[in-house]
Amino acid sequence: MKYHQINSALFVKNRRKFMAEMKPNAVAVFNSNDIYPISADSTLPFAQHRDIFYLSGVDQEESVLLLFPDAPYEHQREILFLRETNDHIAVWEGEKLTKERAFQVSGIRTVYWLQDFHKILNEMMTYADTMYINTNEHYRASVETETREARFVKWWKERYPAHNVAKSNPILQRLRSVKESEEIDLIQHACDITEKGFRRLLGFVKPNVTEYEVEAELAHEFIRNRSKGFAYTPIIASGNNANVLHYIENNQQCKEGDLLLLDVAAEYANYSSDMTRTIPVSGRFTDRQKAVYNAVLRVKNEATKMLTPGTLWKQYHVEVGKIMTSELLGLGLLDKADVQNENPEWPAYKKYFMHGTSHHMGLDTHDYGLLHEPMKANMVFTVEPGIYIPAEKFGIRLEDNVVVQEKGEPFNLMRNIPVEADEIESLMNE
């Protein structure tokens, strides 16, 4: 891996938290992701399942984690299974985890090769009453591929029909949404790499550069700072392209007078950052562009203040909508009649700001978090309002990543990334 090794104490702590929530006499199993084929002998780059990474730090395919806190013997309470490495694999694929190295990474002392998994699982199931299966229950999930985890669940249900079934996901949704200090440091590092990429762009963007050239500049800066690259598919949208919320073609020329919306961010050690900035291709905003820009910035700043312990996500978005409505009235995009006659299910402001303001962030860009439960300290959220005006051929979105504090306003992990319009203009014209 490109990133520096994470202290195994984080993963020891995460496992303890998870096992403390398990029912008595229960086993939990977590699988790595598959390496997905493209065609012929080509595959997509491996990306680890975030749950097994969160609990073990193991960032390798064909790995399995078994947790059994009430096992009769201490060495059976945490078990890691790995693909057996050998000299042939080392020559063709490079270094894989040895048992000793796996202990250094995870803090788990009991490590077996994967071929022993079924035999040892069978022994554990003779002691256990319940199995925790790990299904994907994220509110944005849309999975059409049968994952390695899903295949295991199907096999396990057929093999052990007499056992009770429990779900890992509700536990992980709560645990992963509240970050440990080590995790916040890793997200901060990802944000710092993103800052380097953005500052590089401010001296690069000018009329006639292409969106893909901008993407290449970012990729260069991210990778040279030990990131695998983008935390998500980058959105580099000039002019009217910014009014397509998930524009990812990135193949157009940036023209004089246009704005360039950049929803781009680096990952680090599997932790995400998630930034959006909007900059003038020519280095100067027009008066109208700056007026809209500053309206979005004011909404972002006011929305950020509301991310405090006890806040409910749904009500938060209602309040942000009121602030946005006021700004749109000031810009002349809405009038009082629009607001008075609005559909409560789709308020008037949604014509220009149709997406949500905040989501959990962490190991996943859209991270775990139960939206019906109140916000807690050390949750990490995005704050990303936008105003999109197809008739004027530009859209503006601004986004930071913030950590909810016990008291007071959130801590902005992107506090050092330029966002004020005057500062951006100044840096682009140095």
TrEMBL record:
Record's catalysed reaction(s): Release of any N-terminal amino acid, including proline, that is linked to proline, even from a dipeptide or tripeptide
GO BP annotations, alphabetical order: proteolysis
Keyword DNA damage: no
Molecular-function GO term, any one: metalloaminopeptidase activity
Gene3D superfamilies: Creatinase/methionine aminopeptidase superfamily, Creatinase/prolidase N-terminal domain
Record CDD domains: Prolidase
Class of the enzyme per the UniProt entry, highest EC level: hydrolase
Cofactor: Mn(2+)
Keyword entries, A-Z: Aminopeptidase, Hydrolase, Manganese, Metal-binding, Protease
InterPro entries: Aminopep_P_N (IPR007865), Creatin/AminoP/Spt16_N (IPR029149), Creatinase/aminopeptidase-like (IPR036005), Pept_M24 (IPR000994), X-Pro_dipept-like (IPR052433)
Enzyme Commission designation: 3.4.11.9
Aminopeptidase P N-terminal domain location: 6-142
Entry-linked PANTHER family: XAA-PRO AMINOPEPTIDASE 3
Family as reported in the entry's similarity comment: Belongs to the peptidase M24B family.
Name of the protein this chain belongs to: Xaa-Pro aminopeptidase
Source species of the chain: Flavobacterium phragmitis
